[in-house]
Amino acid sequence: MADDFRDLFKDWQQPGGGEEGAPREGEEATDPEGNPYETTSETENRTRRSLNEKEVKVMGIWGAQDPNNPDGPPKQTFVLLRDNRGRKAPIFIGPFETLAIQMALEGPTPERPMTHDLLKNFVERLGGTVERVTIDDLWQGTFYAKITIAQADGSVADVDARPSDAIALALRTRSPIYMAEQVIEDAGREDETE
């Protein structure tokens, strides 16, 4: 089995292995023009596509109590988003995300910044603004989002994020939240089947 696997890669040379143009140990990999490759994740390099986005509002956070422990914390919580046509999209979130969103909705400000407050401070101190959040995909029950940051030089950057983190940041920066039409429709269908 191991020999079969090696045969698949017999022509493969590792960087620094003598192949012309391959980086040597400690060197940076470059494109054919000599520019260094960007080291971002594959999902951050997804191209922007027409999403027919609709603005959504956070309606609140709801949780289902554990019948065996009615005084304990909710067994499962979700943030509920709604568009201007009344369509709803629940996104299930964990306990830390619940706290972060709940604090942004209800307004208590902690003495020291929590993670999303810190991220907001970073963006602002570096001269950027959170322009918007877009929940742009739903795949196998998992939502995907992007945070759009406008930089001081006029450029715009999209950063991939979990929707719960993106929502917590958007609430703190008072930025609009958008959802792709297809995601709203798919979320409604998933809600109907549960």
Describe the structure.
Helix 2 packs parallel to helix 4 and helix 3 packs across helix 4. Strand 4 (129-139) and strand 5 (142-150) form a beta hairpin. The chain has 194 residues and is an alpha+beta fold. Residues 1-26 and 42-47 have low confidence and may be disordered. It has a seven-stranded mixed sheet. The chain starts with a helix and ends with a helix. It has five helices and seven strands; from the N terminus they run αβββααβββαβα.
In short:
It is built from five helices and seven strands, in the order αβββααβββαβα.
Helix share of residues?
25-40%
Q: Calculate the terminal CA-CA distance, rounded to whole Å.
A: 44 Å
Low-pLDDT windows of residues: 1-26, 42-47
The structure class reads alpha+beta
Strand content: 25-35%
Helices and strands in order, then pairings?
Blueprint: H1 2-8, E1 53-64, E2 76-83, E3 88-93, H2 95-106, H3 115-125, E4 129-139, E5 142-150, E6 156-161, H4 163-173, E7 177-180, H5 181-193
Parallel strand pairs: 4-7
Antiparallel strand pairs: 1-2, 1-7, 2-3, 4-5, 5-6
Helix pairs in contact: 2-4, 3-4
Key attributes of the depicted protein:
alpha+beta, 194 residues, 7 strands, globular, seven-stranded mixed beta sheet, disordered N terminus
